[in-house]
């Protein structure tokens, strides 16, 4: 079955059509997988050194062409140019790390064989899986998929990438830059375009692994499709991340925490899987923190970016222009909601919280002005409200009061999601102690999203946040299959894998080893 029709991409800021792309069906997806599989043969011949050089060349191309890539990201997602460029930089940092560390992490090495097998040489190798299908979201259309693409390529695989239907141009550009930079490895990275069915076709296309990032609901569907063929899956789902604020913070500490909460909650219009959605502050500092958060959130500007007199973008809508003290010609801090249906979710969460008695400290229903949502700060939100339980994915943060840090940990953990969290306390030690009690897969002490630019750290969560890890050594292992090799070096004292060994001799050896272990 081939795909039919065209997939159009639109500007979330203006609604204008940007471009259109093929809708790839099972036949086109299978062909792309075939091309990537063929290209993986020469990728294998390139060896660790050749692959490292090629990946670093690709990385340099992405860094050099950041402006071009950022332009497509900004057009498709609506995010400001600065944010789009920062996203490309993060992807570049991860690609660089994967390229430089793949051999150390996955290269063949000797391991200790143990006393009973001292006659064997024990080797551990990691083989590429083959072709990895990467299914991506729209909120970070380069950084998020590159966390799988870069590491999968570095591990020796080919990749077929299915970007979100909202950001097909970004995905197509990533593969085009690959082919332009590395013609000798053409189609090792292929992009297929389309909506959910194209992703489903990829999950069913006999790829050797699927790396999915998106909502938990879609993750379940992808897992079900993969289960039919026992295709392994890494599933990166959403989050409901909490920030914990201790009662021992001084004024400067509270300022830092408030600043981090506002950035973590509002940047990218709150459309960040590990963005800040909940805050649990110890009662003694709760009001002071709320006051600081509101003061800062009022300064955050959204709205259409307009060209300034110098030709650069100028942010701010009519209400906030001139009132934020920023010079004309600057961009807004964040752009429109990329996915139009998200506006309804935010409105619903806001209404449910207000109806349940939450205090609305900043904004309200009037903050939702499609396609933009202005910052919203809530306090004292009942814990069973959707705002505290479901992913809002908008510039809305709820700041609740708790009796102590232990209660903050308990509430943060009482979520179906367990992706990220952050802790602000007077001492780093207390922060680390609280971090160790959290279920979250990534915790930042004294900052938010501190891990994003540290490629050696694994990223991922559990529960509705998914399973498996991207980034770091774990992220390389995720795209490789361990192979254990033993090489017999000399004849053992008693060969336990041969009938030629007299039973009495073999039994003596077993008994000797048993006694040893009984005492060790
Ligand atoms: P989504 O689940 O709607 O779509 C994700 C991708 O899956 C898209 O490419 C889509 O076309 C594809 N898809 C849809 N149906 C499919 C099917 N049946 N089979 C295979 N593929 C299918 O998610 P989204 O709206 O694009 O992204 C937002 C979500 O992603 C949020 O929940 C966010 O928290 C999450 N996210 C998570 C991370 C992370 O690393 N944990 C990072 C970024 C975003």
From TrEMBL:
Domain of life: Bacteria
Region (Disordered): 300-340
Entry annotated with the keyword Signal: no
Keywords: Oxidoreductase
Biased composition (Basic and acidic residues): 323-333
Matches recorded under CDD domains: ALDH_DDALDH (cd07099)
Ranges where the Aldehyde dehydrogenase domain occurs: 6-483
Protein's UniProt name: Aldehyde dehydrogenase family protein
Origin species: Streptomyces marispadix
């Amino acid at each position: 079955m081939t795909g039919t029709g065209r997939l159009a991409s639109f500007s979330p800021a203006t609604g204008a059509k940007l471009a259109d792309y093929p809708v790839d069906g099972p036949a086109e997806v299978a062909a792309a997988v075939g091309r990537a599989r063929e290209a993986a043969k020469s990728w294998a011949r390139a060896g660790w050194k050749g692959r490292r050089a090629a990946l670093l060349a690709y990385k340099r191309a992405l860094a050099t062409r950041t402006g071009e890539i950022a332009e497509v990201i900004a057009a498709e997602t609506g995010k400001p140019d600065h944010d789009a460029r920062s996203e490309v930089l993060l992807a570049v940092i991860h690609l660089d790390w994967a390229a430089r560390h793949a051999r150390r992490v996955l290269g063949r090495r000797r391991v200790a064989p143990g006393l009973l097998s001292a006659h064997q040489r024990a080797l551990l190798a990691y083989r590429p899986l083959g072709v990895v299908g990467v299914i991506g979201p729209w909120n970070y259309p380069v950084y998020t998929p590159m966390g799988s693409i870069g590491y999968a390529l570095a591990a020796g695989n080919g990749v077929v990438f299915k970007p979100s239907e909202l950001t097909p141009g970004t995905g197509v550009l990533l593969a085009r830059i690959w082919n332009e930079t590395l013609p000798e490895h053409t189609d090792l990275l292929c992009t297929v375009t389309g909506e959910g069915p194209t992703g489903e076709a990829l999950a069913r296309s006999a790829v050797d692994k699927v790396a999915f990032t998106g909502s938990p609901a879609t993750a379940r569907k992808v897992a079900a499709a993969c289960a039919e063929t026992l295709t392994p899956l890494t599933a990166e789902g959403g989050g409901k991340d909490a920030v914990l604020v201790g009662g021992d913070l001084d004024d400067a500490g509270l300022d830092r925490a408030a600043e981090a909460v506002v950035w973590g909650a509002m940047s990218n219009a709150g459309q960040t899987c590990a963005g800040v959605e909940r805050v649990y502050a110890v009662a003694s500092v709760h009001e002071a923190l709320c006051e600081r958060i509101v003061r800062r959130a009022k300064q955050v500007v959204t709205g259409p970016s307009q060209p300034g007199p110098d030709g650069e973008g100028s942010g701010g809508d009519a209400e906030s222009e001139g009132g934020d003290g920023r010079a004309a010609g600057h961009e807004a801090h964040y752009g429109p909601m990329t996915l139009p249906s998200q506006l309804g979710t935010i409105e619903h969460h806001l209404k449910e919280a207000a109806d349940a008695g939450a205090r609305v400290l900043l904004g309200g229903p009037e903050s939702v002005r499609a396609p933009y949502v202005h910052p919203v700060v809530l306090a004292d939100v009942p814990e069973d409200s959707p705002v505290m339980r479901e992913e809002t994915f908008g510039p809305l943060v709820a700041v609740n009061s708790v009796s102590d840090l232990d209660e903050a940990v308990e509430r943060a953990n009482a979520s179906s999601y367990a992706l990220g969290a952050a802790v602000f306390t007077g001492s780093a030690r207390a922060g680390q102690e609280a971090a160790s009690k959290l279920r979250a897969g990534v915790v930042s002490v004294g900052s938010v999203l501190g891990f994003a630019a540290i490629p050696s750290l694994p990223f991922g969560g559990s529960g509705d946040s998914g399973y498996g890890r991207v980034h770091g050594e774990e992220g390389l292992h995720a795209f490789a299959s361990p192979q254990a090799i033993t090489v017999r070096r000399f004849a053992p004292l008693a060969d336990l894998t041969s009938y030629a060994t007299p039973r009495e001799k073999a039994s003596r050896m077993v008994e000797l080893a048993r006694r040893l272990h009984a005492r060790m």
